[in-house]
Design a protein that fits this description.
α4 packs across α12. By secondary structure, this protein is an all-alpha fold. The two termini are 40 Å apart. It contains 13 helices and no strands. The radius of gyration is 23 Å and the shape is globular.
């Protein structure tokens, strides 16, 4: 039996790790509630009167609300398309044998390993020549090229872990391949689907480089808007932190929603 005295160093270490991880978020939120004068105080002011002025100015006066909506449109559209296209492809790679399967698998994986900066100029030239600059569809298609390999990679491994006996039993009952995929394999593969959805959403939501290069005003995303506050000599720290807080909130909400599906998939182990 372990003594509590032997566990206190672990609790202390855990508390330090949690503090290090949580402190940047605490500093971001508290700074967003400070005025510019209080935010620039040295040493830092820990007790102050909070204000929502930074949020009001950022959302309505500076147009952050519009960029948040743009980011939601792009991130949700990219995530849905990645799952709709990636799940059937992953099922085919995991369950069927066909010519060129290894080459196709290698091509999917290597696509994700390409550095985004290498493709920035070609994507910009293509979008400009096609008249697709400052369009939501442009960001969705570009993010899809990076998110689709992640979905296929993760979900394929999840499908491979499902016994083939379930497929054979379903075929004996007259089930089609689509029925096997949607009603038998997909529920058991939900942990991988949830993880890939989280990755896809976070990448699409937080991506900055293409949001700066390929958008101007109509399709400008929230990360690109946050960076635009840092132009010039007067940095509005309160607005920057308020925008950053607003950017983090949807990611946390989506992760909580997807985590429920992750837990649900992990607990689905019983088969009739």
């Amino acid at each position: 039996m372990f003594s509590p005295r032997l566990l206190w160093p672990q609790f202390v270490l855990l508390a330090v790790i949690i503090a290090v991880c949580v402190f940047p978020f605490y500093w971001m939120v508290t700074t967003s509630l400070k005025t510019q004068i209080v935010a620039l105080e040295a040493p830092p002011v820990w007790i102050f009167e909070p204000t929502l002025t930074n949020y009001q100015e950022a959302l309505f006066d500076d147009g952050v609300l519009r960029t948040l909506i743009n980011s939601l449109i792009v991130a949700i559209s990219t995530t849905i398309l990645s799952l709709v296209l990636g799940i059937p492809a992953a099922f085919a790679l995991a369950r069927f044998e066909f010519r060129g399967k290894k080459d196709l698998w290698f091509w999917f994986i290597t696509n994700r390993m390409v550095s985004p900066i290498v493709l920035a100029l070609p994507f910009f030239l293509i979008a400009r020549n096609l008249g697709l600059l400052d369009k939501h569809i442009t960001l969705v298609l570009i993010y899809l090229t990076f998110n689709l390999p992640i979905v296929i990679w993760i979900v394929t491994d999840q499908f491979r872990g499902i016994p083939y006996d379930l497929d054979e039993a379903a075929r004996l009952e007259g089930a089609s391949q689509s029925t096997i995929m949607l009603k038998i394999c997909l529920p058991l593969a939900m942990p991988g689907v949830a993880v890939s959805a989280i990755f896809s959403f976070i990448f699409s939501w937080n991506e900055l480089m293409y949001g700066l290069i390929l958008t101007r005003t109509d399709a400008k995303t929230a990360p690109a808007m946050a960076v635009s506050f840092m132009e010039g000599y007067n940095l509005p720290y309160g607005k920057i932190m308020a925008t950053s807080t607003l950017i983090v909130i949807p990611v946390l909400i989506f992760a909580l929603i997807a985590s429920k599906q992750l837990v649900r998939g992990l607990t689905m182990g019983a088969v009739k």
